[in-house]
Design a protein that fits this description.
By secondary structure, the protein is an alpha/beta fold. It is 30% helix and 25% strand. It has a single domain, classed as 3-Layer(aba) Sandwich (Rossmann fold). Strands 6-5-4-7-8-12-11 form a 7-stranded mixed β-sheet, with helices on both faces. The protein has a 3-stranded antiparallel β-sheet with strand order 1-2-3, with no helix packed on it. A two-stranded antiparallel ribbon has the order 9-10.
């Protein structure tokens, strides 16, 4: 039987499932971490897909900036816990008119979306051992497909440096994301990577020659693997 519980933190409660913490609380807190994901992506408007709702903190934070947030969660027990958590209330009240919640498996639900229909993606899956299909290249291809040209993806990576079946989890994620077309940059303090779909314009691009742009891009990719 799966065991769910909430634990206290410096601000919002954190969810624990079968002894596995579902939130970042090292160096941060659930509320700050959710807000940081939104800040890293630079969300100011547009349409956001939030994969793995959990208690909804990230969807709520994104909804305060975006025009629309679509969030997906397959575990109905988690949804029930969220309904009884005061800090998740905006998911279910009239205050969250721009949040659309879907109860279903993200692996299947993402197939239903049109090509290039989201400006931002936030992918916050459980650990690789619990939801390996959400770390696979097929799923990543769909992430790339539904993201608009020039869009950005934040992909949570639990415990940077950890291994699964004697292989680096982080390097495996980065390699598969690059295989489907993303450019990847690591954000260690946010425990994740930010991916850019072709068409994204960096602030430093204006005024640079094509050669310098290419060299800078290569340097950025090299640093992300260090």
């Amino acid at each position: 039987m799966t065991v769910y519980k909430l634990i206290s933190t410096d601000d919002y409660p954190a969810l624990v499932i079968d002894g596995i913490l579902m939130h970042c609380i090292k160096w941060t807190s659930p509320k700050k971490d959710a807000e940081n994901k939104v800040k890293i992506l630079g969300i100011k408007k547009g349409r956001v897909l939030d994969i793995c709702t959990g208690l909804g903190y990230t969807a709520i934070a994104a909804s305060r900036c975006a025009d629309e947030v679509v969030t997906i969660e397959k575990d109905e027990n988690v949804i029930e816990i969220a309904k009884n958590n005061e800090y998740s209330a905006e998911l279910f009240t009239s205050k969250s008119k721009n949040i659309k919640s879907i109860i279903g498996d993200a692996y299947d639900e993402i197939e239903k979306f049109d090509d290039e229909c989201f400006d931002y993606l936030i992918h916050d899956p459980p650990t690789l051992s619990r939801a390996g299909e959400l770390y696979g290249e097929k799923f990543y291809k769909n992430l790339y497909r539904v993201l608009k040209s020039g869009g950005k993806l934040f992909h949570y990576v639990s415990k940077p440096g950890s291994k699964y079946r004697n292989k680096s989890v982080e390097k495996g994620i980065i390699n598969r994301l690059r295989n489907v077309g993303f450019e990847v940059k690591i954000y260690e303090k946010a425990s994740g990577v930010v991916c850019f779909k072709k068409g994204f314009k960096f602030g430093w691009e204006e005024g640079l020659s094509d050669t310098k742009k290419k060299l800078y891009s290569i340097e950025l990719q090299h640093k992300s693997l260090e």
